[in-house]
Amino acid sequence: MLRCNIKTFAIAFLCMGIAFCAQAQRSVEEVTNANELLKAVKNANKAGGHADILLADGEYAIRQRIIITAPHVTIRSKSGIRENVVLTGKGMEKRNDIEVIFDIKSKHVTLAGFTAQNVSNHIIQVRGGKDADNFTLRNCILRDSYEQFLKVGQMRGKGDKGTADNALIENCIIEYTASQAPNWYTGGIDVHGSHGWVVKNNTFRNIASPGDKIAEHAIHFWDGTEDIKVINNVVVNSDRGIGFGLGNRDAERSNIGGLIEGNIIISNDKSHLFNDVAIGLESSPDTIVRNNTIFYTVDYPNAIEYRFSATKDVVIENNNTNRAIKARNGGEAYTYTNRCLKQPAPGLFGA
């Protein structure tokens, strides 16, 4: 009887292993142009995901939004050299028919190792209302988007519910190739209502308004975000650097907690009209800001601001800056061992 049970268990275990391997198997497809890329994504969506799409070196003229609705889809360059694979829209003119290159509506989507540029809205849109968790953007260049480069929305009252949680953005460049944006309503990463994001080792350049109003932040989390980590990024000549929260908000619409650590934020372009704070906490309680370097030669007086009465139990420590660290509008923080940076470190403005 025991021998029979052992045999039955072994057969069942073997069948489970075979089923698991079949489920985990991924398709792999190499593409060489925009039409093949679009077809490969449609095939992956239809098959239920679990697909690797490899981009051969070359230029891809994007003329249709790439919508990803299946989970576990990866789109990456075959070479791993992001400058060698360039996806280009029809330009930044407002609301032409290529508004977005990648529209993410599913979990576990990874984009890696290429350049995407020249669109009239967002280069990447992640749909928080579709629970598009575990998004990864790695080793990419995003250039010249009319509005925010990476936009993450949270639907309210429109049938979709959920958030896009636990994303990773690393080793990317997000920039305007000119010294400023074509439009004030822009930002680098703009995230609503998501939790557990990590943004690390990226470079942001020239997220600056040409006029009318101030641009959004190079990195901005607000409107119900929580437990965000922004680590070891470089922000150059942008109106506002890193922002957690926005305005005087209640708990549902603020940012809760998180870490801003090891970032370098520099600004020396005095032609920009709206130079503003490097790190801003607005209705962002329980947040830690530490070990950042901020050096301004523009006129804005403050490097770090903590604002509004909801901003409390904040720790600001070990930052190096040549501008003030200041409470505004009733914000509260514990400040420790922050140092005045009288001269920039060698090579700082060459970042």
What does this structure look like?
- This protein is mainly beta.
- It contains two helices and 35 strands.
- It is globular.
Count of extended strands = 35
Q: What name does the CATH topology carry?
A: Pectate Lyase C-like
What is the first-to-last residue Cα distance? 72 Å
Provide the low-confidence segments as ranges. Answer: 6-22
CATH class: Mainly Beta
Report the structural category. mainly beta
> What is the CATH architecture assignment?
3 Solenoid
Radius of gyration: 22 Å
Domain Right handed beta helix: 188-323
Signal peptide: 1-24
InterPro entries: Beta_helix, PbH1, Pectin_lyas_fold, Pectin_lyase_fold/virulence
Keywords: Signal
List the helices and strands and how they pair.
Layout (H helix, E strand, L loop, with lengths): L1 H23 L2 E5 L2 H14 L3 E5 L2 E4 L4 E3 L4 E5 L7 E4 L11 E5 L4 E4 L2 E5 L2 E6 L8 E3 L2 E5 L4 E4 L14 E3 L2 E3 L13 E4 L5 E3 L2 E3 L11 E6 L2 E2 L2 E3 L2 E3 L3 E5 L10 E2 L2 E3 L2 E4 L11 E4 L5 E3 L2 E4 L5 E6 L6 E4 L2 E2 L2 E5 L4 E4 L2 E2 L11
Outline:
Residues 1-24 form the signal peptide. Helix content is 11%, strand content 39%.
Characteristic terms for this protein:
351 residues; mainly beta; Pectate Lyase C-like; 2 helices; 11% helix; globular; Pectin_lyase_fold/virulence; Right-handed parallel beta-helix repeat-containing protein; signal; PbH1
